[in-house]
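Data card: per-record layout.
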Amino acid sequence: MGRWVGIWLPTVLAIAIVLVLVVKLVLPRRRMLIPGRAVLLLLSTLALGPGLLANVILKDNWSRPRPIDVTEFQGEDHFVPWWDPRGDCPKNCSFIAGEPSGAFWTLAVAAVTPPPWQALAYGAALLFGAGVGLVRLAGGGHFASDIVFSGVFTFLVIWAMHGVIYRWRPTRITDQQVERAIERVALPGYEAMGTADPASARRFEAPRRRRALLNNRIQPRSTIQTVFLPPKQGGLQLATSAPADAIDRAAAVHRRASADANTARADTDAGNRTSPQHHAAPCDATGRITYVCAVDDGAGWLRGCGDETGCQQRSGS
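The structure for this 317-residue chain is written out next.
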């Protein structure tokens, strides 16, 4: 039972990761269900550790017989220590342990677990690998050194690949770079499907338009500007820091408000006072004009006032 758990748990995890990659290849414009670097780390370490190093390079070329095959346990082969590859085993030999290597690969899963759970995940992975190794040891399939080195070699592969992908400056990458690389592979076929079927093309294009729209709405230009507006009554001066596009809109409204205020003042002097609804000069909390500025609340409205004693809202259009 323990042996089958050691085989099937890593297999199920690997299938789930491959499915995430397949979904991304079929629907390249969708975000991956698992971060891109995590998928790359898990698949690469599974292929390089339990796959290539354990089951291809060492087990088929390091001719150490299994315990059940040596003469000390009523077998026919001669015992050799772990460091000696000159044994009698022709293929699928004892060093290193393959199934414990796959069980210790769950350390890679622990490496991409969220930090609050990482210590628990590492502990569980080590216990799982050791448990599978004990099952193989009890069945005469491996020596203790085979199991220990399967854990050591698998850990070293995971450590090295984690450094390449996450830690080391010359080679580290981001999740977005992984997703963009997958999209470059998958998009030609994806767009060809959409071109062949206009209805599909519209359906494929819609998520990209929505995403672009959302990015434009929630990611304003990052440049920060400070605008000092001229003082009005009482020497008051306004300084504003905001995203550049909001400042641009506010400055344009400020110019229009200044022109309206000057027109209103000229009309008042001539005895022909302009009606309040035609003014856009903002006012302070007391309802009186003290400075000229405009604040866009993000919904197309500008705070302003119609005269020196009453404030109102006007459309930004």
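Known properties of this structure: Residues 218-242, 272-282, 287-297, 299-317 have pLDDT under 50 and may be disordered. The longest strand covers residues 224-229.

See the next section for split statistics.
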